[in-house]
Design a protein that fits this description.
Strand content: under 5%
Order of helices and strands: HHHHHHHHH
CATH superfamily of the largest domain: Tetracycline Repressor, domain 2
CATH architecture of the largest domain: Orthogonal Bundle
Structural class: mainly alpha
CATH class of the largest domain: Mainly Alpha
Shape: elongated
Distance between the termini: 38 Å
Length: 193
């Protein structure tokens, strides 16, 4: 991979990406995972298989690219009036989405990707959500932790649980991770449990 997928393509390239992503989503909805092959996706998208191989390299990377788009919210970020509330509302929605069958498949596809640029896009997306929520909180006069603290205290346990212990990926545990990450001055130097 050349890392081009980090840049939003324009013109024909954008149309091809849209058509291919739509073809993957349609095939995912209409049948089993075995229905997803490069030739079927290419036929559905109206392109040649070589176009898919040239752009994505293989099926796993194509599925990861489509899945990464799923992480971007269609709606605006929640604004509940507090950073804790915003993190909880965003996290609740994220957990619900990623615990669904399509969400679990999307998360697995992203984790299976060997493309560092795609993983970097995923990291940047998550950090941009946290930065936006913290910026709004600071505008309201709230104290906010550094982004790495939120990544380590909220995002890391949430991701771990989604991947390896779905039963523990709950709104109640999310609230606990948030509370610890936003804890009082005595808690601010300690690592989350």
């Amino acid at each position: 991979m050349t890392g081009r997928e980090g840049v939003r393509p324009g013109g024909r390239s954008a149309r091809v990406q849209q058509a291919v992503h739509a073809a993957v989503r349609a095939l995912q909805e209409s049948g089993s995972r075995e229905m997803l092959t490069i030739p079927r996706i290419a036929e559905r998208a109206g392109v040649t298989p070589s176009t898919l191989y040239r752009r994505w390299g293989n099926l796993a990377e194509l599925l990861a690219d489509v899945s990464l788009e799923r992480l971007r919210p269609d709606e605006t970020l929640p604004d509940t009036g507090t950073l804790a509330g915003d993190l909880q509302a965003w996290g609740d929605h994220y957990l619900e989405e990623m615990l669904s069958v399509p969400g679990r498949l999307a998360l697995n596809d992203i984790m299976a990707s060997t493309d560092d640029a795609r993983r970097e896009r995923c990291r940047r997306y998550t950090e941009s959500v946290l930065e936006t929520l913290c910026w709004r909180a600071r505008q309201r006069g709230e104290w906010t932790p550094e982004i790495p603290r939120l990544v380590d205290g909220v995002i890391a346990p949430m991701t771990y649980r989604l991947l390896y212990d779905r039963a523990a990926a709950t709104p109640a545990n999310l609230a606990r991770w948030i509370a610890h990450s936003l804890g009082g001055p005595a808690d601010r130097g300690r690592d989350p449990a």
